[in-house]
Amino acid sequence: MQLFRFANPDYLYLLLLLPVVILLYIINEIRKNKALQRLGDINLVVRLVPELSKIRPFVKFIMQLIAVSAGIIMLSRPQFGSKIEDVKKQGVEVIIALDVSNSMLAEDIQPDRLTRAKQAISRLVDNLDNDKIGLIVFAGDAYTQIPVTTDYVSAKMFLSTINPDMVPKQGTAIGAAINLGIRSFSPGEGKSKAMIIITDGENHEDDPVASAEEASKAGIVIHTIGIGSTEGVPVSVTINGKKDYLKDIDGNTVITKLDEDILKKIAVSTNGNYVRASNSNIGLDEIFNEIRKMKKQELESSVYTEYNDQFQIFSAIAIFLLLVDFIIMERKNRRLANIRLFKFKV
């Protein structure tokens, strides 16, 4: 599998100008038609000017549009990774376990708990260099969203797709997330392994403290981030396009509260830290600063180290279309009338 990228992606913003060009072309055509109508009956005008063609200017415009698009893509330098190389770096392995239960949609942390947590993780990934990162999502059960990797681009891509609907079983099984995390680290003794759990702490499914003790035996340090209000807030949901609050089977509004006690116990049992998130600071950076103090280990990863430019095909398309556009005249040529390049009736 080859990795695709644009070496100069900023040029792609020029494609946003194409709809404006199309709009200007349509406006100009409308003005030209109105001008012809002012000269007299349109059918009579066409007979008086037999060289006039309606289809040729349109075809030339389409060619120019495609040529410009190909030129913009050419400037952006599309590339394919052609060589995979094993790279050894010094860093730590970190797995983030993110709660995606419905209670994470509560808006006591703006815009809501889950969105704010994803934003903080995204910023963290932007600042990573040598470390490996993995991502687990959990609600009533836990799933690996991203295996431990140094492919930060893919990590951010998968992060953006996370939502409560991706886990079919609702609830908050923190223990299941910890157990999955234990199995997800790279095998081997003496490695620096850290896990960060971001949740409101309302565990309903298992015994997370017992799971944390097993993680500690495996040399894994677990840090916890409590996100939400200890007083309790309703959970916002959108039903048929209207905002409402989550109800239980009896029709009562569900109130979600942050359970700090369970998160503190998990952190303490593995010599980790607990941080209470707020609207201004989720706490992920503080915890990662602690993780960076851990002993670095040699991490191996496979990366694309050479990229081949693929702009040539787009350059050829642009040149060919511009050449054809130059040859084709907007008006019919009587000398070339018998050459049927265009078999359109006008």
Gist of the model:
By secondary structure, the protein is α/β, with parallel strands linked by helices. The protein has ten helices and 13 strands.
What does this structure look like?
By secondary structure, this protein is of the alpha/beta class. The protein has two domains: 4-77 and 311-336, no CATH class; 85-299, von Willebrand factor, type A domain (Rossmann fold). Helices cover 37% and strands 23% of the residues. The chain has ten helices and 13 strands. The protein has helices at residues 18-39, 42-48, 55-76, 113-126, 152-160, 174-184, 208-217, 260-269, 284-291, 312-327; strands at residues 4-6, 78-91, 93-99, 132-138, 142-149, 193-199, 220-226, 233-234, 236-239, 242-245, 255-256, 274-276, 297-309. A six-stranded mixed beta sheet has the order 5-4-3-6-7-12, with helices on both faces. β4 (132-138) and β5 form a beta hairpin. α4 (113-126) runs antiparallel to α5 (152-160). The longest helix has 22 residues, at 18-39. The chain is elongated and about 90 Å long. The mean pLDDT is 82.
Give me the secondary-structure category: alpha/beta
Whole-number radius of gyration? Answer: 30 Å
In total, how many domains does the architecture comprise?
Answer: 2
So how many helices?
10
Helical content stands at: 25-40%
Oligomer: single chain
How many β-strands, per DSSP?
A: 13
The CATH topology of the largest domain corresponds to: Rossmann fold
Q: How are the strands ordered across the major sheet?
A: 5-4-3-6-7-12
Could you name the CATH homologous superfamily of the largest domain? von Willebrand factor, type A domain
Low-confidence stretches: none
